[in-house]
Write a structure and sequence with these properties.
This protein is α/β, with parallel strands linked by helices and 512 residues long. The chain has 17 helices and twelve strands. It is globular, with a radius of gyration of 25 Å. One of its GO terms (molecular function) is glutamate decarboxylase activity.
Length: 512
């Protein structure tokens, strides 16, 4: 990518114009408007090119105090010129992390799907809200069709349920919690906590996403009443421990009402045993929610869906984020319910200045009263366009390819036991391992060695960022010190990139 803004010069007649000279759109300045937007597109396309160029750095790292000196982030009293705005765009992208780079293995969401990106451009241009059919007719119908298809992938008896796109998996999980409480206590909406004679209690794995525990805080249960169920060595919920905890809470007079299983935990990529948990939920009358924000994409794969997601159709609600494994651009999160009508009855506020009952069309297509938001971003067009481009078959191949690349990484780690230590056989694209520098290669593996390997992780990560050639995340968990968690969720990754990953870690870290 260009190191300066010299490649993005506007013509003399346009460069010194300001926003008010051409915008809002003025016919007499159409040529200048097009020139300005075309330059912005050039910046964008150069960033796309750089993101897919393995010779480019993933990032040009600077510490915050250094970055503030490189950037002019002031909000001015008077507007700057169009040329300065183009320069600002170029500078911003120059220092942005290229999450679409084939050697960016850091986050659950990575890669740059160009069809989804095109959908996002047009979404921003349409700039509409998703609360009523009258202002987003095509997008509302798109959402209905795609959400119905996603429910069909969950289970054949889910077709007539309900779904919505939410601003992230955390809010999707919150919708599940709210619906579960509403289902058990339909008067809670009006009467509040006095409706419940006893302490509500929810359960989730100790490996689950923090947003599940956050529901207990946000909705008044208190985090002490979000019971963390122990997991096994592979990060899966231990169901016999779940039942013990349910029985214990019931013996105290509490009301167990909600269980969240995780299909693809954030760190280890573990899948809780849904069928076993569903049996316990049936036995004790609890709502079963599946947080498949991360692993939901595997519903599209015949090869990898089972046994990981076996039993998902028995849940009452499912979170599924296409912006993760499926590669839709951020943000794109969905929440699905087996039962239709719960979203509306739980969240409806019947604001008559938006959701009038005497409109000229069928008001069941107004979605705004089903959600706790009013303003809701259009997250459907990019997903619909991407699905049109790939089809179910294309997404299945994409899921299978990501899993196969992760299996290749596991094989390459096992081929080099002197340099890498595989922590466990993964169920998903999360591959957890330690890098072993030269001085620790002859040391027998022990808790002491693990502590030493853990100390290496932040140092090696800092070298990656300063070199700009590679990004892999690390973290500790409750059983071990820092370790690397590699994620392959980008369609651009190849076996050569996996080889580069291991070789580059060794190059950067052998002397630690």
């Amino acid at each position: 990518m260009a190191s300066n803004t010299s490649n993005y010069k506007l013509s003399a007649t346009t460069a010194n114009l300001k926003y008010n000279d051409i915008l809002p759109y003025k016919t007499e300045n159409e040529a200048q408007t097009r020139e300005f937007l075309n330059k912005v597109i050039e910046v964008l396309l150069d960033f796309v090119k750089a993101s897919n160029d393995r010779n480019e750095k993933i990032l040009d790292f600077h510490h915050p105090e250094e970055m503030l000196k490189l950037l002019d982030l002031r909000v001015p009293d008077h507007g700057v010129t169009l040329q300065q705005l183009v320069n600002d765009c170029a500078t911003t992208m120059k220092y942005q992390v290229k999450t679409g780079h084939p050697r960016f293995f850091n986050q659950l969401s990575s890669g740059l799907d160009l069809i989804s990106m095109a959908g996002e451009w047009l979404t921003a241009t349409a700039n509409t809200n998703m609360f009523t059919y009258e202002i987003a007719p095509v997008f509302i119908l798109m959402e209905n069709v795609v959400m119905t298809h996603m429910r069909e992938l969950i289970g054949s008896d889910w077709r007539d349920g309900d779904s919505i796109l939410a601003p992230g998996g955390s809010i999707s999980n919150l919708y599940a919690f709210l619906a579960a409480r509403h289902k058990m206590f339909p008067n809670y909406k009006e009467k509040g906590i006095a409706t419940i004679q006893g302490q509500l209690v929810m359960f989730t794995s100790d490996q689950s996403h923090y947003s599940v525990k956050s529901c207990a805080s946000v909705c008044g249960l208190g985090t002490d009443n979000c019971v963390m169920v122990p997991s096994d060595e592979n990060g899966r919920m231990i169901t016999r421990e779940l039942e013990k905890l349910v029985i214990d809470r019931k013996s105290r007079g509490h009301i167990p009402f909600f269980v969240c299983v995780t299909s693809g935990t954030t760190v280890l990529g573990a899948f809780d045993p849904i069928n076993e948990v569903a049996d316990i939920c049936d036995k004790y009358g609890m709502w079963l929610h599946v947080d498949a924000a991360w692993g939901g994409g595997l519903l599209l794969s015949k090869k990898y869906r089972h046994p990981r997601l076996s039993g998902v159709e028995r849940a009452q609600s499912v979170t599924w984020n296409p912006h993760k494994l499926m590669g839709a651009l951020l943000q794109c999160s969905t929440i699905h319910f087996k039962e239709d009508g719960l979203l509306m009855s739980c969240n409806q506020m019947a604001a008559d200045y938006l959701f009038m009952q005497d409109k000229l069309y069928d008001i069941k297509f107004d979605t705004g009263d089903k959600v706790i938001q009013c303003g809701r971003h259009n997250d459907i067009f990019k997903l619909w366009l991407q699905w049109r481009a790939k089809g179910d078959e294309g997404f299945e191949k994409h899921m299978d390819r990501l899993m196969e690349l992760s299996e290749y990484l596991v094989k390459r780690i096992k081929d080099q036991p002197d340099k890498f230590y595989l922590i466990m056989e993964p169920e998903m694209v999360n591959v957890s391992f330690w890098y072993i520098p030269s001085r620790l290669r002859n040391m027998p593996h022990s808790k002491h060695r693990e502590q030493e390997l853990g100390k290496m992780c932040p140092v090696l990560k800092s070298r990656m960022m300063q070199a700009g050639t590679l990004m892999v995340g690390y973290q500790p968990d409750d059983r071990r010190p820092n370790f690397f968690r590699n994620i392959i969720s980008s369609a651009a990754v190849t076996e050569k990139d996996v080889d580069f990953l291991l070789n580059e870690m060794d190059r950067l870290g052998h002397d630690l």
